[in-house]
Amino acid sequence: MHVINEEGGHAKMAIIDVEHLSIAFEQQGNMQSPVLSDLSVRLEAGEILAIVGSSGSGKSLLAHAILGILPQNAKVDGRISYEGESLTENRLARLRGEELVFIPQSVNYLDPLMKVGKQVAYAVKSGNRKAKQRQAFRRYRLKEDVEGNYPFELSGGMARRVLLATAAVTNAKVVIADEPTPGLDPQVLKEALGNFQQFKAEGCAVMMITHDIEAALQIADKIAVFYAGTIVEIASMKDFTEDGENLRHPYTIALWRALPQNGFQPIPGTQPTVDALPPGCSFAPRCPWKTDACDIERPPLRAVRDGEVRCIHAT
Q1: What does the alpha-carbon distance between residue 231 and residue 62 come to, in Å, rounded to a whole number?
Q2: How far is Cα 249 from Cα 245, in angstroms, rounded to an integer?
Q3: C-alpha distances in Å from residue 70, one per residue of 78, 125, 175
Q4: How far apart are the first and last CA of the chain?
Q5: How sure is the predictor about 215, in pLDDT bands with cuts at 50, 70 and 90?
Q6: Are 25 and 35 in contact (CB under 8 A)?
Q7: Side-chain half-sphere of 5: how many Cα atoms within 13 Å?
C-alpha cells in the first residue's frame, strides 16, 4: 500500500492503488506474453492523474482491470486496492457504477434501445431520479427534450455529454475516463476538460487515459507515462517545462520535445510489441543514454526528485 508523506508529517492514503499489475491472455490454451507488466500507480482523492501513451499500447486495460471488466481469458497478477482494501469481485459489484464510475472511449456504451434520459435516471441511486437527471442535463447543457432521444439521434458531442451526465448523478469518488477527447474541436475539448476539473473540485479522483499529452497537461496534476505495457515515469505537471530538464526518463523527455511547440523533434525507432520486448529496459534500443547495463534487467520503478522513474541512469 502506498502512503505519501505530506507537509506537516501527515500521511495520505491513495484511493486507488495499483501494485505490480501484470495482465496476460490465454488463447487456444496457451498463455500469451503479458500485455501489461509490473505496472504500479496510485490515484489520490481530489487529483487528476493522466495516463499518457501511444494509441493501441494497452492503456485501456488498466481501466478495465481496476473496474473488473476484463474478458474471462485474462490472467491478472498484482494487487489493486480501493481506500486501502483489495478490490475483490464482490466489492467491485457494489462499487462499480456507484463510487467507481467509468466514462468509456466509445459512445456505443450507451444502450441503443433506451432513451438517454431514462439511461441517466437509471444511474441515480437515491432521491428523485427524474429531478437529478434533469439537473445533470442542465449542467452539461443538454436541453430537456434531449431526454426523449435515442443515442443514434444525438451528435457525438451530445452523446459524450450524456456519458458525463451519467457519471454526475452517481456518488462517484473515482472517475475513470478512457480516451475522452478524440476528434473534438478546440471549444468542445475545452468544455470536456473543464468537466473533469469540476469532478476534481467536487472531491473526486479522476484518471484520464489518453494519447493526447497536450490535452492532459491542461488539467492533470500528475502524468504517468506509459511505454511497452508499463509505466516508465510518474511526474508532476510542473515538471513539463522548457526543454524537459526536470523530467526523469529519456522517453518522457523525447515525448515532450516531440511536441510542435517544443521543436517537433522525432523519436527514432518504434515502440516494441509485447511479444518482442528487448532484454532489460524496453526503451534501450531507442535511448540516447543506453549502456551495456541497460540490457541486463528491466529497471524497477523508483523514487527520484519527487517523482518515480524506471531508469537506472535517472538522477
Answers
A1: 11
A2: 10
A3: 15, 25, 18
A4: 25
A5: very high
A6: yes
A7: 3
Within 13 Å and on the Cβ side, how many CA atoms surround 299? 22
Going by C-alpha positions, the residue among 104, 120, 108 that lies closest to residue 180 is: 104
Residue 113 CB contacts under 8 Å (≥ 6 apart), including other chains: 150
d(CA 40, CA 51): 12
Sign for the pseudo-dihedral over CA of 175, 256, 58, 236 = negative
Q: Is the pLDDT of residue 37 over 60?
A: yes
274 close to 228: Cβ distance less than 8 angstroms: yes
| CA dist., res. 65 & res. 80, Å (int) | 8
Confidence class of residue 9 from pLDDT cuts 50, 70 and 90? Answer: very low
- Residue 76 C-alpha from the chain's centroid: 18
Q: Which residue has 481530489 as its cell numbers? A: 46
Give the per-residue pLDDT at 134. 96
